[in-house]
């Protein structure tokens, strides 16, 4: 019997990893061109069960994989070659870590003998992403004597990614390959014993430790809370104040800006689950109320940057018990207030309404919900306008809120839209920051309406103290950062259809048309200046506050 060559061994190794990942449930693999990653790229391409996405920019590829994982709720794999290509993934790995999104990050590497001797495309990739990955593996060059460990390696990485021992997130395999990079696969190692017990941690909350019967319960909920649990808590008359990825009471930020309303809204108990909404006003009111605050750890611990949680438990309430039924009149009071705000903000939906940033937000929420498409919202002002001024959402909503950056957002949008339909909502600087996403778009199948609110700069900074304390020229140079590029011309140069819209009716129609066909349509929504936007927000907030004060009198 002939002994397999080292190249044949690593071909079998790569094929075994891929085979085990397919068994575990892998569906999507994002591959960036490169030589050193050849064995795994070839192994991935050989599997008809997988959908491959080849993208030329590694940074964009990482966020595209993130979008795929967000939509499918399964780990997506991203494969790159060695050197700076591996470093390009760092931002997406950090976002996936803080957002608890499962990713299989695979970086190819040179063998140890080529490190420290000036070999090209060779950097230190050991723990390249610091503490962000849930697991790091660096098994070295594949050896036939270790073939029985290959499937276990793949399974360990998969299970760490999906969160069987820790919160879900990215894992990193640094895979060294030797030349020749192509070999014959041969027979793969035997399958693993599937009778091994899962390492999932128990989640237990003793219902006798506390109850909220007939109390005014305010639950602040973000990503990490299962939708069925949120719905059950609403049925128990809990008031849900949520981030944009979760369904809850609409307009809470606008309502809480009213001192009259906030005083009347004081809860008996606050419950925290998952991440936080974007609203600073909510955080301020929570501190003012100083209500007993219970933090519930489900997949992850609740965010608590202001230290308001007074008691912590692991697990979710048993929603079948009457001890968890809250004060129904409090829940109805919030619902009535939300209706008052909705009546005031409905002016933003008039078809002939000239677009401003809040009306763009309402349009993307309304159209994505009515058309059954996912919505992906960019950081800075888009996420805030959707949270503050929009009705409850009926479609899946995603956002890169792990670390709240603007990098890679368009790539994430395209990942969500791949083989599906999605509306993306970003600002002009976010769109410019991720122009390389336009190189590959959504791939062969997928429909995306990419809506860009063009206010010629970073709109969120106009709401911050820098805007009033710095002279206009310094503020514009350092924070407003206007860029006078023609966004429509940029998108057209990549071959995409573009639409310029100025009214609500035009935007609604453009989104509907975009989702009615394959590919990407870039929709440029012209909105007022950043200073006018600040004034518009103040006007809307004051109108709601006046209506709420009247309803309370």
Would you give an account of this structure?
This protein has 553 residues and is an alpha/beta fold. It is 38% helix and 16% strand. It has three domains: 6-176, Rossmann fold; 217-330, Rossmann fold (3-Layer(aba) Sandwich); 346-547, Rossmann fold, CATH 3.40.50.970. The protein contains 20 helices and 17 strands. It has a six-stranded parallel beta sheet, sandwiched between helices. Helix 3 crosses helix 14 (409-417) and helix 11 (328-345) packs across helix 20. It is globular.
Poorly predicted tracts of residues: 197-204
Helix content: 25-40%
Task: Specify the overall morphology.
Answer: globular
Number of domains: 3
Summed over residues and divided by their number, the pLDDT gives a mean of 93
Number of strands: 17
Structural class: alpha/beta
Q: How much of the residues is beta strand, in percent?
A: 15-25%
Q: What is the CATH level 1 assignment of the largest domain?
A: Alpha Beta
- N→C terminal distance: 91 Å
């Amino acid at each position: 019997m002939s002994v397999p060559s080292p190249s044949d061994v690593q071909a079998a190794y790569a094929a075994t990893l891929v085979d085990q990942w397919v068994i575990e449930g892998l569906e999507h693999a994002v591959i960036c061109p490169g030589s050193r990653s050849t064995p795994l790229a070839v192994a991935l391409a050989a599997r008809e069960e997988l959908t491959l996405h080849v993208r030329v920019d590694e940074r964009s590829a990482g966020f595209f994989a993130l979008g795929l994982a967000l939509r499918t709720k399964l780990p997506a794999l991203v494969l790159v070659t060695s050197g700076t290509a591996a470093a390009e993934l760092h931002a997406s790995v950090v976002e996936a870590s803080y957002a608890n999104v499962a990713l299989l990050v695979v970086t190819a590497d040179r063998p140890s003998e080529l490190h420290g001797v000036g070999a090209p495309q060779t950097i230190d990739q050991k723990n390249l992403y610091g503490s962000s990955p849930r697991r790091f593996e660096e098994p070295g060059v594949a050896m036939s004597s270790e073939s029985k460990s290959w499937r276990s390696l793949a399974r360990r990485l998969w299970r760490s990614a999906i969160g069987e021992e820790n919160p879900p997130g990215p894992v990193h395999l640094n895979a060294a390959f030797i030349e020749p990079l192509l070999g014959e696969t041969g027979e793969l190692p035997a399958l693993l014993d599937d009778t091994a017990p899962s390492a999932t941690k128990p989640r237990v909350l003793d219902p006798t430790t506390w109850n909220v019967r007939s109390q005014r319960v305010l639950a602040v909920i973000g990503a990490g809370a299962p939708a069925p649990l949120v719905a059950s808590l609403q049925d128990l008359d809990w008031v849900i104040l949520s981030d944009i990825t979760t369904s809850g009471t609409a307009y809470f930020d606008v309502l809480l800006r009213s001192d009259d309303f906030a005083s009347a809204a004081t809860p008996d108990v606050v419950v925290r689950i998952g991440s936080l909404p974007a609203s600073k006003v909510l955080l301020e009111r929570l501190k003012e109320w100083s209500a007993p605050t219970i933090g519930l750890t489900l997949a992850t611990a609740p965010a608590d940057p202001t230290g308001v949680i007074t008691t912590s438990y692991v697990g979710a309430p048993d929603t079948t018990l009457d001890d968890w039924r809250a004060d129904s009149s409090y829940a109805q009071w919030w619902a009535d207030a939300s209706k008052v705000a909705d009546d005031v903000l409905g002016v933003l939906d008039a078809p002939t309404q000239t677009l401003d940033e809040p009306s763009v937000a309402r349009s993307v929420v309304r159209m994505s919900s009515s058309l059954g498409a996912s919505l992906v919202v960019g950081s800075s002002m888009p996420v805030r306008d959707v949270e503050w001024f929009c009705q409850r959402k009926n479609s899946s909503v995603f956002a890169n809120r792990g670390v709240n950056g603007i990098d890679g957002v368009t790539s994430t949008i395209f990942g969500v839209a791949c083989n599906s339909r999605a509306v993306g909502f970003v600002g002009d600087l976010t769109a410019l920051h991720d122009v390389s996403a336009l190189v590959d778009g959504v791939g062969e199948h997928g429909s995306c309406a990419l809506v860009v609110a063009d206010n010629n700069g970073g709109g969120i900074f106009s709401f911050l103290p820098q805007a009033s304390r710095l002279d206009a020229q310094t503020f514009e140079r350092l924070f407003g950062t206007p860029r006078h590029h023609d966004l429509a011309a940029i998108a057209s140069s990549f071959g995409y259809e573009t639409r310029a819209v100025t009214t609500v009716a035009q935007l609604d129609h453009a989104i509907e048309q975009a989702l009615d066909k394959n590919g990407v349509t870039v929709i440029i929504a012209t909105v007022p200046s950043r200073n006018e936007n600040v004034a518009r927000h103040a006007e809307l907030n004051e109108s709601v506050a006046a209506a709420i004060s009247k309803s309370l009198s």
